[in-house]
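seq as requested:
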Amino acid sequence: MKVLVTGAEGQLGYDICRQLHSEGIEHHGVDVKDFDLADRDAVMQYIRNYNPTHVVHCGAYTAVDRAEQEAERCYAVNGEGTANIAAACRETGAEMMYFSTDYVFDGHSKETPWDVYDPADPQGVYGISKYRGEYAVREQLERYYVLRISWVFGKNGSNFVQKMLRLGRDNKEVTVVCDQFGAPTYTKDVAAIVPRILESGRYGTYHAPNEGITTWYDFAKEIFHAAGMNTKVVPILTSEYPASAKRPRNSRLSTDALVRAGFGPLPHYHDALVRYLKEICVIR
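struct tokens:
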């Protein structure tokens, strides 16, 4: 295997590169400094030159609120950029893994976890852009993997856990929404299954968050408890929280397909949180 990883300086790409390195798998990580995903010629030329057997596409525009004001750029990166990666994979014969999101669903029309076969109905620019990426992959390739994840946290980048720790150090209490449900995803745990999936040839769509369901409010309380902090968490409703982009009320993702294929389940998010806090030296 010879793997090209996009978005290598982000949370997910960083941990995937670390996992590939630990397993002795030939790989190369690229990011915005190497080429612009929206530049089709640059994408094609880079992938032709490296000639990977697999491309793991983590590179993305992820600023959910800013996307509402920068829709053109978001669509260019997540939609057209992913289409460019898929086209290059088709030309070179490389297999592709694309990381997507719970935002491809409408976030409110069902109370149970979203299955991989549920119809997509994204409600904002970010979700639409990521689903355009999914569509481009499926339209152009037969040998692909789409992995949807949610509530991502990892060592190499900003995330909810780090935000809570920062706010908790400076404030006696914080307010967090209590009516959005989902499962956190530790990038190190997702990265651990990537080589196995790439080697499997079991193409298709999977949901790959950590096990367990929580709310942002409850997750914040667990973060402070695990970190040994006494910060008080005050629950508020989504309607009370100002945001440009609509947030999914239901971000639960069913991991049934992942388990049936033999790649899951991932560890419970409680366990993942503790390991992450140790990784970033918050606790021992």
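The chain has a mean pLDDT of 97.
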